[in-house]
């Protein structure tokens, strides 16, 4: 008989599951576990990432930088080994000191006119230095069969515009100014950190907030190059495009994600002294290169971005940071080897069965909905039929044949990879959309839904316990990885995914009455999560229900549909009792143990500000209180902590 898959040694028997499922299943671990000093959080996800990291380390350290041959495998071996060696050579990096910065900082200091500045911003963006706005290539929401360049707000060194205005972030702002000054001194740059901060604060004032930014309707603003130049005439667009190295015609059509930001940027460009812009750009250079410089730069960077925002006490070991560099640069080359060694074909086959059951369960659920009219229901089912699952790894691996790096030039390698990636992305314009492309590596412990391609993607590394155990009971698997699958499918029908049709096109496929009914349900879920707060040392920090609504819809629908899928998988058979646990208990315990985690107060506060995901405890408990099956499984009453009256329970999909 298969085991239950439930890790009972983490249970806290003093807490009843109907009062707090999260604490019941994870309570002993929450009390006893110490977060490692090099991170701001730890838990089930991080344990899987640590496992994948150890496996990747063996792959990277075994790579042969001197292997001969012109085939892709040999070239990838050399890339992996060379990138890692260039990062691990700390002695040479210390000897170089500020040398790798000199050319870029000299170029900033030499700028005499605004067009020169814009050209340099583009040139530096091309090689990995953030500009005053972001640019990237994606499928066109209005026509997902083609690529288009997107322009979005940028220019900030703090995580979000709210940090520049919130009273609660006053101390962080002061620390940020000190951090800027510290790094500029190390880089031997004579610039006023206060002026850099003033310019970023002015940029932050014209940024959209995090809730507005995630609205697909508001951020889809198709434009053309000549109109952009006309709308924001103060900024030297042609000079920026020249510096970026955009091919002819690549920028003819654009999506301007936040028009208000660009209008504000134009005014700031005209009104702000060139000296301030030079100081800001010098800071951007130092900030971008600091992780790859001598130890004093790395430590200064960690002291602010690590300690202040994550609460971590120690810098990650050098080998770990070296692996991150390699994976960020040639992640699919590493992934090809990871899959060969660590992802057996039978895991993919079993995962495909789970996905098929989840899609079938969604189909059944949509058909059974009593609040959705027949016209919209038919279109929802049509969208579901067009979902494309991707499991484990890409069908075709990325071609790195035109990427070349050097063993003794870490910063140069970072520039080379960024330039190669910029060219690779811009070259997509005018070409057919590659629907086989992956945007995560196989060794990533995560999953995603891509609404522009209407696809759900599950990398190999997440397909391990506690999310997926090929040897464990199905109830646990459905409560864990089944809910993850359901969550990603659910993104196709959340508050933003529901604005896209089955081809990924931004289109209104709802009747007016059905959309109103949907929004009433989502509003009730927003209100529920608005009522949650984390108790941190400086007081309660509330969850932003509007920011997290998409993920909360994914969680709610994912778990509900996973239960339905589990019942379908039983095919009428009576579920067994395993380890003294009913199928319902194994299912919900599987869900709860997948969210096992704890977070330092600093990182928790950051996540509540910028992360569209709710904290783990609310992802676990916030969902189950809405599910009738949970209340039936644990025989809840009005006296129980997770009781929610039936009329207040939200059910969407």
Distance between the termini: 34 Å
User: Which outline best applies?
Assistant: globular
Mean pLDDT: 97
Give me the side-by-side strand order of the main sheet.
Answer: 2-3-5-4
CATH fold group of the domain at 8-34 and 352-387 and 472-648: Collagenase (Catalytic Domain)
Which CATH-level-2 architecture of the domain at 8-34 and 352-387 and 472-648?
3-Layer(aba) Sandwich
> How much beta, percentage-wise?
5-15%
Described by strand count, sense and barrel closure, the largest sheet is: 4 strands, mixed
Amount of helix: 40-55%
DSSP summary: helix tally: 26
Number of strands: 11
CATH superfamily of the domain at 8-34 and 352-387 and 472-648: Collagenase (Catalytic Domain)
Class from helix and strand fractions = alpha+beta
Are there runs of 5+ residues with pLDDT below 50, and where? none
Radius of gyration: 25 Å
Specify the CATH class of the domain at 8-34 and 352-387 and 472-648.
Alpha Beta
Protein described:
The structure is a single chain. By secondary structure, the chain is of the alpha+beta class. Among the domains are: 240 residues, Collagenase (Catalytic Domain) (3-Layer(aba) Sandwich), CATH 3.40.390; 194 residues, Neutral endopeptidase, domain 2, CATH 1.10.1380.10. The protein is built from 26 helices and eleven strands. Helix 5 runs antiparallel to helix 14, helix 7 packs across helix 8 and helix 7 packs antiparallel against helix 15. The longest helix has 26 residues. The model has no long low-confidence stretch (mean pLDDT 97).
């Amino acid at each position: 008989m298969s085991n239950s898959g439930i890790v009972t040694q983490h249970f806290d028997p003093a807490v009843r599951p109907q009062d707090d499922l999260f604490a019941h299943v994870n309570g002993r671990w929450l009390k006893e576990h110490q977060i490692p000093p090099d991170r701001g959080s730890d838990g089930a996800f991080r344990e899987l990432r640590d496992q994948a990291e150890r496996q990747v380390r063996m792959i990277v350290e075994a790579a042969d930088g001197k292997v001969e041959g012109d085939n892709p495998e040999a070239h990838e071996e050399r890339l992996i080994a060379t990138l890692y060696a260039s990062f691990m050579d700390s002695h040479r990096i210390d000897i170089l000191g500020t040398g790798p910065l000199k050319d870029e900082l000299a170029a900033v200091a030499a700028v005499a006119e605004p067009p020169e500045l814009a050209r340099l911003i583009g040139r530096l963006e091309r090689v990995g230095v953030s500009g005053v706005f972001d640019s990237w290539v994606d499928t066109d929401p209005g026509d997902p069969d083609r690529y288009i360049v997107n322009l979005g707000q940028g220019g900030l060194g703090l995580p979000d515009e709210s940090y520049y205005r919130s009273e609660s972030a006053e101390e962080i702002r002061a620390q940020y100014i000190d951090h800027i000054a510290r790094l500029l001194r190390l880089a031997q740059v004579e610039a006023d950190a206060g002026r850099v901060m003033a310019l970023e604060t002015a940029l932050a004032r014209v940024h959209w907030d995090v809730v507005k930014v995630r609205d697909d309707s508001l951020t889809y603003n198709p434009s053309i190059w000549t109109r952009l130049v006309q709308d924001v005439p103060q900024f030297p667009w042609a000079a920026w495009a020249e510096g970026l190295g955009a091919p002819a015609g690549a920028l003819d059509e654009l999506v301007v994600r936040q028009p208000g930001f660009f209008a504000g940027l134009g005014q700031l460009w005209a009104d702000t002294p060139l000296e301030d812009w030079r100081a800001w750009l010098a800071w951007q250079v130092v900030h971008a290169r600091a992780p790859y410089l001598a130890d004093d730069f790395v430590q200064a960077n960690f002291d602010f971005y690590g300690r202040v925002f994550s609460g971590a006490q120690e810098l990650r070991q050098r080998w770990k940071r070296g692996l991150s560099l390699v994976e960020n640069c040639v992640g699919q080359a590493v992934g090809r080897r990871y899959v060969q060694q660590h992802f057996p074909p039978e895991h993919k086959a079993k995962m495909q069965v789970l996905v098929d059951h989840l899609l079938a369960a969604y189909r059944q659920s949509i058909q059974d909905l009593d609040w959705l009219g027949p016209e919209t229901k038919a279109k929802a089912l049509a969208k579901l039929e067009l979902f494309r699952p991707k499991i484990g790894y890409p069908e075709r691996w990325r071609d790195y044949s035109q990427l070349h790096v050097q063993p003794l030039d870490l910063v140069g390698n970072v520039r080379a990879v960024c330039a190669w990636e910029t060219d690779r992305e811009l070259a997509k314009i005018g070409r057919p959309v590659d629907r086989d492309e992956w945007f995560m590596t196989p060794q990533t412990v995560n999953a995603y839904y891509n609404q522009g391609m209407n696809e759900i993607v599950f990398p190999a590394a997440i397909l391990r316990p506690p999310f997926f155990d090929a040897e464990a009971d199905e109830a646990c698997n459905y409560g864990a990885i089944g809910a993850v699958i359901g969550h990603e499918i659910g993104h196709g029908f959340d508050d933003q995914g529901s604005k896209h049709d089955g081809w990924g096109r931004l289109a209104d496929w709802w009747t007016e009455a059905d959309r109103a009914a949907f929004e009433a349900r989502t509003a009730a879920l927003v209100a529920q999560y608005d009522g949650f707060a984390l108790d941190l040392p400086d007081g309660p920090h509330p969850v932003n229900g509007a920011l997290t609504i998409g993920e909360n819809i994914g969680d709610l629908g994912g778990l509900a549909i996973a239960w339905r899928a589990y019942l379908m998988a039983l095919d009428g058979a009576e579920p067994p009792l395993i380890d003294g646990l009913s199928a319902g208990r194994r299912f919900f315990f599987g869900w709860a143990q997948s969210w096992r985690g704890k977070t330092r107060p600093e990182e928790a506060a950051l996540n509540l500000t910028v992360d569209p995901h709710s904290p783990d405890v609310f992802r676990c408990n916030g969902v189950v209180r809405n599910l009738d099956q949970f209340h039936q499984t644990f025989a809840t009453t009005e006296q129980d902590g997770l009781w929610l009256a039936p009329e207040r329970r939200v059910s969407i999909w």
